[in-house]
Each structure stands twice: as structure tokens, then as C-alpha cells.
Amino acid sequence: MNNFQTEFQNNFRIENGIFQKYTGRDDSVTVPDGIHTIGEGAFKGCVSVKQVILPKSLRQIEANAFKGCRKLEEILIPEGVTQIGDYAFHRCHSLREIRLPVSVTRTGCCAFLYCDSLVKAYIPGVLWLGRQTFLNDVLLEQLEISPLLDADCLCDVFNGCGKLSEIALYGGPVFRFPNVVEVAAGAVLVPPLVHAIALDVLQMMELEGRCVTRFLTNLKHVEIPEGVTKIGKSCFFDKRGILSVKLPSSLREIESRAFRNCICLEKVQFAAEQVHIHQDAFKNCSSLKEIQICNQTPYTLAGISRLSGPSIPALVQTIHRQVLGNFSISGTVLLKYLGNESRVAVPEGITRIAQEAFVGK
Question: How far is 171 from 155, CA to CA, in rounded Å?
Fold first, then answer.
């Protein structure tokens, strides 16, 4: 055996048909024939791997097997595999498509969690999906499922997959829709199973028709799905963990107090130019630094520096006025705090806080 072959063999740790560990740095790996199990954590954190070729002898992929393989782009899972373990492909950020054979009838929890480049998922034999299997796979558009998939498992499985627009029933019809909000609102005729998936996608929010009335989690980065036309009153009020919000082209209205007191919010992206913003919608969002409209060059909010003039969109001016609405300012001096929130972020640019500025607050 030459030196290359010896090194190649030494990159594999195999015992009794179980592939236990890959220690190499190749971008393409072929698992030897005769292997029946990819063991727990076998490829975990192998950041160089882009392609894995699995043998026909394979029967199961255990927990964490490919977790953190962030460059993994291609893997073909052969017929005969029956098990996909917990977190098996967690944070495989480059994986764009997954095809499970019909022999896989169940997935572990979080199996494809944060596979945020995944566009297509084919799971035609799966009857039960583990918790958070596809959570926050934000680019997922196409899904093929078994018509016998148990709807009772659909709780926090597809949460955050807001771009889902096509669901095919294996061996049956394909259902296409503009967005999951239309499905949840009953505007698109689909079977109960497809409707249940749409509701699961939107589980992090409460909807009345096409209006988000309440957001139920405190994510750092929030993306509101297409189809939503209104952000309801106080929807995000006092959610201090939010750093950025991405709003859809369908949005037409943001009601009062919608984002009030989101004191860590730094960036808001609009996909529509005409959005009616009610009074106080962004009040006390004094960390807000950037507003972007329709993927154009973002506008920078430089603390207390006023934005005005015909080149500044009314949308930006409105939000900036609201951001500073709780403060009486003269030059760079904070004269008086006018709000009543329990926590306040003083705007950038303030050099002095006047005597009794916060008295009685």
C-alpha cells in the first residue's frame, strides 16, 4: 500500500460495520461499502467536507453524524436507510437539497435544524417528524411528503420556513400557493395536512387573517413572511432581544406601539416603499441605526442627527422622528425624558444630560 492509500485509510475509524469517525480534510469523501451505520458524531464539525458518497449497504445515520458540516453541499442517502438521528445534519449551512428514501419513516429531533440554505426537501416515506426537524430553514420552498404523515407531529417542525410555496403529496397532487399566510388564512384550497404544515410554519406568531397580532418568541433576527399585510398594535412591544427585522413586500401598515421599546433593535428592512406607520410604532427604539427600503442603499440613523430633505424618504423620516419622540433635545443636550418605559437607551450623540432630566421617571 502506498503512502497515499495508508493516509486515506487512516482517515477512517471503522469498527464492526460502524463508521465511527472521519479525521481527514478532503472536500469529497466516499464511505466504504459494507458500512451499515454512520456513527454518532462521525463527521461532526468536518468543515472541509462538501460531498459525501454513502454506500448501498448503509442502514442508519445516528445522532450528530454530520452536525456542523457547514460546507456540505451534496449527500445522497441510499434506499434501505431507516433511521436519521437527532441533530444528524444540524447547521449544514450549504446543503440546498435533501432526498430521503421511502425507507426512512421517522426523523430524529432537529435533524435538519438551521440548514438555512435548504431549498428542497423530499421526505416521501416519513410518517413522523421529530421536533424542530426543519426549524428556521428560511429558504425552504419545495417539500414532498407522504400523504400518511401524522399531523400530530406538526408542532414546531417547520417553524420559520416562511418561503414554503409548494407541497407535493408523494404519488399524488402538487399544491402551489403564493405563501403560507394565504394558506393559513383559508384563501387557498388545500388538504388538511397541507394546512397544518402552513400553521406550523407560522407557529411563532398569532394571526388574524393577514395581520400579525402577536409575536411569540424573542428572536435576534426576525423575518415576517410574505402575505402579511399588517403588523398589529403592540405586536413586538418591549421585545428587547430583537436586533433586526425584515418586512415583506405585502406589508401595508404598522400599527401603534408595534415595535415600541425594542431598545436593541438596530436594523429594519422594508421590501415595500409605501407602508403606513402609525404614531408611536417605533418609539423608544433608540438603538436603531439603519433603515433599508427595497434593497436600496440603507439610510443611516446617526443618533440625534436629524434627517430631512427631499432625498430622504418619508418612511425613514417618520421612523426617525418616532425613535427620538421620547426625548426633548437641544443641540446635544438631553433636556427631558418624556416617556415612562422602565429601561431607556440614551441616543447616540448626546453629550450632556440636563439636571432633573429624569426626575419623576
Answer: 25
Predicted confidence (pLDDT) at residue 309 exceeds the cutoff of 70 = no
- End-to-end CA distance of the chain, in Å? 79
SS3 of 95-151: the string is CCEEECCCCCCEECCCCCCCCCCCCEEEECCCCECCCCCCCCCCCCCEEEECCCCCH
Q: How do residues 130-187 score in pLDDT, each as one tens digit?
A: 999 999 999 999 999 999 999 999 999 999 999 999 999 999 999 999 999 999 999 9
Q: pTM for the complete prediction?
A: 0.83
From residue 303, alpha-carbon distances to 132, 314, 347, 348 in Å are: 39, 18, 5, 4
What CA dihedral angle connects 237, 213, 267 and 295, to 10 degrees? -160
Place of cell 445516528: 62
Helices (H), 120-234: 180-184, 192-201
Distance, in Å, from the CA atom of 230 to the CA atom of 275, rounded to the nearest integer, reads 9
The pLDDT assigned to 348 comes to: 76
**Do the beta carbons of residue 279 and residue 303 sit within 8 Å?**
no
Does residue 20 contact residue 42 with C-beta atoms inside 8 Å? yes
List of residues 6+ apart from 199 with CB closer than 8 A: 154, 184
